[in-house]
Amino acid sequence: MLRIEDTDQTRLVEGAVDRIYDALRWLGIDWDEGPDVGGDYGSYVQSERLERYEQMVTSLFNCDRAYYCFCSAERLKTLRELQAQRHLPPGYDGHCRNLEPAKVAHRVKTEPFVVRFKMLKGGVTTLHDLVRGPVVFENRLQDDFVILKSDGFPTYHLALLTDDSSMEISHVIRGEEWLPSAPKHVQLFEAVGYPVPQFAHLPVLVGSDQKKLSKRTGGASALEYKDKGYLPEAMLNFLAFLGWSLDDKTSIISKDELAAQFSLDRVVPNPAIFDLERLDFLNGYHIREIPPVRWKALVAAECPDSVSDELMSTVAPLLQTRTNRLEEILPNISFLFEDYLPTYDAALLSERLGNDVSMTLHVLQDVVSALSQIDWNVVNIEFAIRGLQDEEHLGIKMRKFIVTLYVAIMGKPQGIPLFDSLVLLGREESLRRFKYAADLLEN
RNA sequence: GGCGCGUUCGUCUAGUGGCCAAGGACAUCGCCCUCUCAAGGCGAAGAUCACGGGUUCGAAUCCCGUACGCGCUACCA
How do beta strands A146-148 and A171-175 pair? Predict the structure, then answer.
């Protein structure tokens, strides 16, 4: 079930709800009930449920667990300052808790107000958290929090009580930052006599600096990861094992398996650092798992439309073990279809040959002559280039001189396999690049 | 300041009193494979289980304390 919690009218953001849909759908997480698909417990948008919250407030008044509060923002502010100064426990002081009913009835008509919940002040409230076990809170330190704001909208607390009870929510699984307000929620449910849902407070994800996730440390919406070239299955796999484990050795998991295996009792209570290196590994892993047809489509999506289907068929498999993120695809193959001579530092050509320029020239010249006459296919190209190792030609190992050829063709000392690349480039363009490299070296 | 939560290799974690002189994965390093780079295979290094007390024949595992980190402390969620 998907519920949109939009009770803070000051923080509405255009398009935010659509991004929630998009992000969840991208990850393959879908819902049976929600604003867009309907369901028996609607509306699923809190701003459309205002009457229900009002009804709940009435019930709370009826059991004497709510009261009007007319305190001004300024009074509240000075109260907080005073408490901080005197090292007192923070929280509302109950100023309006016992106002005369007659006066209240009058002020409600003429003044802005909020409604507060009467917390029990004696004893303790115990939360039985599914991740952390029992957590005990002293009621004396709890304050009467706002449940209905002066604009008539509920706070999160009231909305939670109202919606989770009427929508028959069994589990409240949320971030650890909610733990301190859990006693509020327990008392709210108990006040109206509804069963308290099961609570599970998950550890937060933190950046490499141990602080809240920031842009620098990986904090971003799921959709931003999509744009950066991450696969949803990798993202889900990555997220799944942050704070949870299946057993002592599993680190790869699919969505279906996760759905079948996940259990709250294997969630750990401590925060996890968001490790981008692991995400990259997982993404590479899942890329290698993609069936050829789908992989080819993904590669094509990264390339200009003009690229031929034939070229794509050859190149896609070569890319699959060499790609960790989709955005790495284009730079790796652009030398194939951009009509240009790769630019590079001439020194790169002879680097692997101990900067022996005359030997490097030799390599380039021999390659040109070896490739000039043959029928243009992989087998012949490989045979011809391997032949250069012989004493009567270069007399050095191919692994020594092949890097020179990579640089001449791709502009860098590594990339997708050379022989296949030469086939795709064609004889004319290949020889042109070798000759250009030789020219570069001579000047 | 008050309250709460947390603390096992750099990172994610396994571990619920003996099978742990702590297992797996990422990252790192080495070897193999190899047309480069990857991928893959094999291997190495890496944690006095935050610290200090206790309980016990025996503790990473139970209890107490300390330190450090984080969260909350709104008419935000």
Answer: unpaired
